[in-house]
Inverse folding.
């Protein structure tokens, strides 16, 4: 079993439509805090990130926010985090989040969330990183994305083993368990 002390969570700076996404962000924050797993994330009070942070703090969890100077200047920083880190640029922030994390989870979100997730997954695929990635597939939100990846496999742009290296679950506890059991793919990236 892999030891996971800190998880990087990528998620929407908007909360999405309806209650399901908020409830999932709350459940993930509570589950991670309940297991004593720290969270590193975008550091804001906005959208699902704020919901995740509030739930984790309520459950006694540790949160490390890494935010850019520009977003900090706009007043986006969550005021109650365990650690607040302000960096110069988004690229620095992503590197820092991956440095601090043992695994990554994406909740539903927009292009920022997908971009962060893809960078973490790509680095794992190349063998530059060994920090497994997972999708919390709330209400099937990531199904079209997973179908797109299956098309990549079919068209021989992506090895099946690399596609399967993404842990997918609809419940936080199940996803955390999958990440703890995840192993790095051994198949080469090039088909
Ligand atoms: P999006 O999914 O496009 O809303 O972007 C969310 C992702 O980008 C998060 O995981 C954050 O790391 C980052 N991000 C976007 N907006 C903000 C913000 N206002 N404050 C902090 N991080 C943000």
């Amino acid at each position: 079993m892999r030891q996971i002390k800190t998880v990087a969570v990528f998620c929407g700076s908007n909360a999405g439509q309806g209650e399901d996404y908020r409830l999932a962000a709350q459940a993930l924050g509570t589950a991670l805090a309940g297991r004593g797993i720290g969270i590193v994330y975008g550091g804001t009070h906005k959208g699902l990130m704020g919901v995740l942070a509030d739930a984790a703090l309520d459950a006694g969890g540790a949160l490390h926010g890494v935010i850019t100077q520009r977003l900090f200047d706009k007043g986006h920083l969550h005021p109650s985090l365990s650690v607040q880190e302000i960096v110069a640029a988004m690229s620095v922030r992503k590197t820092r989040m991956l440095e601090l994390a043992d695994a990554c989870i994406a909740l539903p979100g927009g292009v920022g969330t997908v971009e962060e997730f893809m960078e973490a997954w790509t680095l794992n695929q190349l063998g530059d990183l060994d920090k497994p990635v997972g999708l919390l597939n709330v209400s099937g939100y990531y199904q079209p994305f997973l179908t797109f990846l299956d098309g990549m496999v079919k068209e021989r742009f992506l090895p099946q083993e690399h596609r399967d290296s993404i842990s997918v679950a609809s419940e936080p506890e199940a996803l955390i368990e999958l990440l703890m059991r995840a192993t790095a793919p051994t198949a080469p990236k090039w088909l």
